[in-house]
Every structure is written in structure tokens, then in C-alpha cells.
Amino acid sequence: MKLVIVNGGPRLRGWNTAAMLEAAANGARAEGAEVETIYLYTLDFKGCRSCFACQRVGAAARCAARDALQPVLDRILEADALLVGSPIYFGDVTGETRAFFERLWFPGLAYDKARTVKYGKRIPVGLVFTMNVPSDAQYAPLFNQISGTMERFFGPTEIVTATDTLQFDDYSRYVSDMFDAEAKRRRHETEFPKDLARAEALGRRLAAGI
Ligand SMILES: Cc1cc2nc3c(=O)[nH]c(=O)nc-3n(C[C@H](O)[C@H](O)[C@H](O)COP(=O)(O)O)c2cc1C
What we know:
Helix content is about 35%, strand content about 15%. By secondary structure, it is α/β, with parallel strands linked by helices. It has a single domain, classed as Rossmann fold (3-Layer(aba) Sandwich), CATH 3.40.50. Flavin mononucleotide binds near residues 9, 15, 18 and 87.
């Protein structure tokens, strides 16, 4: 089985979102999955341009925009599972992740009375969100909107979050006295490994098709 992971954060290695997705990739590989990770910030692409080519009568459920995201979208539609990760920026996913969602979702939608979903295949989806706030409760409406849309277009969707994340290596070098640097460090050492374990378990479940 093939799992496509999309990293929608700008810090490609070592930091929170990348580490969570790496843990999920390891979990999926341990279950025998083939894993491909896409880094949105390395791709030259834009969000939906409203060309409506995908909504023309008889059109395939594919995005017609020819840029670096198009082959990625094709590979996702051929995959057996999808995992998307993003840090939370100003109460939402990153701009790149949102642009990716527009391109991923719109070709699957039909403006017919039945609101037909044009993607035939059902695959499980994982979502990983990392954030500074100590509780993810305030972002429930956002997460419900994204997981509801993923369920509609693809299949059963599970969310794993990491809260109260470490934002810099050395808090003394940044204006950051709104944070308790020592508490942040402690949490990173004691709680973040548990977040990674939950991400790994998510990767295993996606590989198992749940
Ligand atoms: C531009 C920007 C905006 C952010 N906005 C929020 C926010 O609205 N809520 C929040 O909880 N964290 C916010 N954060 C913190 C990040 O979401 C958090 O540190 C995340 O884990 C970073 O992921 P990374 O380590 O993979 O880059 C923001 C960070 C940046 C750089």
C-alpha cells in the first residue's frame, strides 16, 4: 500500500510538524507501507485559479492547472492513504496548506443537485496539526471543517495534534517573555515524545487502511 504524506509547514526537518510526520511515516513503514513525503514549501504552485476546467461537462475529476502541484495531486488520487500536516498560523493552517486543499478538493466536487463527489475511490486520511497554544479546543471548528471535507471527498479522517510546542531552540535569543521557556523545554522533553507516539500509531493505522 502507498501512503502519501504532505508536509504543509516551512520547517522541513527537525521541528514539530516534520517530526510528527516522520514518526507517522516510520509507523506506516513498520506496517509495510511505501511512503512518499511531499514538502509543499519546496514546490512552485498556487491555489485554485477558478478556471472551472474541472467543472466542464464531461471533464475528468482532475485539476487542469499545470504547475508543480499537479503531479502531486495525481499521485494522491492514486494512493491508498493520505496524511497532511500543518502548523497552525493565526488560527488556521498555513497559506500553502490552504492553497493545496483548494486544489485537492475542488476537482472532486460537482455542482449538480446531488452534490456528487467525483472521486470514486475511498481512502483513509490523517491530519496532523501542531500549535503553540496549550489546548487544541479553540481550533475544533477549523479541524471539524477540514476533517469533514476530507471525509466527504476521500474517507474516514483522523486528527492528531501536538500542542504547546517548542518554537525556538533558545528562548533567551528571542523576545519571548510571554512564554515560560523552562516549562516549554520541559514539556518538549516529557510530552512531545507522547505526541510523536500518537503520530506513529496514526501512521500504522493509515497503513492498515483504518
Ligand atoms: C506565523 C506564525 C503564526 C502562528 N500562529 C499560531 C496560532 O495562531 N496559534 C498557535 O497555537 N500557534 C501559532 N504559531 C506557532 C506554531 O503553530 C507552532 O509553534 C508550530 O508547532 C510550529 O510548527 P513547526 O515547528 O513545524 O514549524 C504560529 C507560528 C508562526 C511562525
